[in-house]
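Sat 14:20. Reprocessing the chain from the morning session after the first attempt stalled halfway. Input below, unchanged.
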Amino acid sequence: MLIWDAFSGYISREEYEANQRRLRENRSTAGTSGVARSGAALLGGRVLCGVCGRTMCVAYEGTGGQYVVYICYPERRRGRYHACQRVPGTDVDRSVVQMVLQTLTPAEIELSLQVLETITQQQEILRQQWERRLERARYEADLARRRYRQVDPENRLVARTLEREWEQLLSTLTEVEQAYTRAQQEAPLVLDQEAHAHLLALAHDLPTLWKAETTTLAERKELLRLLIADVTLTRQKTNIVVQLRWVTNQVDSWTVPLPQRGARTAPAVLEHIRELAPTHTDAEIAACLNAEVLHTVHGHPFTTQRVHSLRRTHRIAKPEVRTAPTVLERIRELTPTHTDAETASCLNAEGLRTAHGQLFTKQRVRSLRRTHRIVKVQRG
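Finished this time. Tokens:
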């Protein structure tokens, strides 16, 4: 038998039950989310299979585990690793984060708080109805008790009938009290003005907090778990159906295109790179492609590294860039009386730049001297 609050404890009953719930959730078993880890998958423990309904596992594929994959193994406990479905998770994670940040705007939170206030008012009306129902059940049980005690003990038939009626009313009273307790536990959250202001401030700070370099992956996962109950994924031929269930049980659905691995870059993009390569740097080529709203095969904007990789893959050569003769002559003049660091400072002060438009450094001056055999005279 367990008797609560018979003795004073170190922690309250509510805190103890909250600790027990957290311990159960941190277990890495079926039906639990497990503790938030430092992996790249943001939805680990929250993803459900849209085919069988089971919790999906997290796997990392590609070089250095750069791709997140959610996999459902329906018979994993039996040692059978036949996948029910495999869903690429990188784009899914990105779309879920975007949905969360779009939803938690000041306007949306203000609307949610107004709805919560309306629900609270309705809950107060419902509480009053429960109290009247509970009061009536107590009155009827007390009336049956008084009738039973007033009956003549010699009249056993009437006494048994009244006793049975009293027991039924006591049972009804117990059921009403238990239902009233459950209704009170399910009552919506009541927020004061200070909490109301804090929530609105959070809507402004959340994107900054999410993108901050000091925010770890584990902290981002904990933040998502406060808002998301689960995410159901269903892989189709060309799309992934994402069904996000918030902790309020509201469901949002959308689709994410399947990543096109192994797809080829459009010939028009490659031809444009060939046209620009003789007269533009990789960074300038990337800027031109982005200005014309051209994207990579995966739908990403072009960067210097992506243009460079495409040139190397498709053997698009760039003309050799040579250092200007005036720069080399100036280095020859400065070398006998200046160190490499001093030479670099003089060149930068005179507005001279390297063949790639960069500032001179000690290492770049030294490299040019060695390449063009500009001998440095040793001092002293």
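Strands lie at 47-49, 57-61, 67-72, 85-88, 228-235, 239-246, 251-257.
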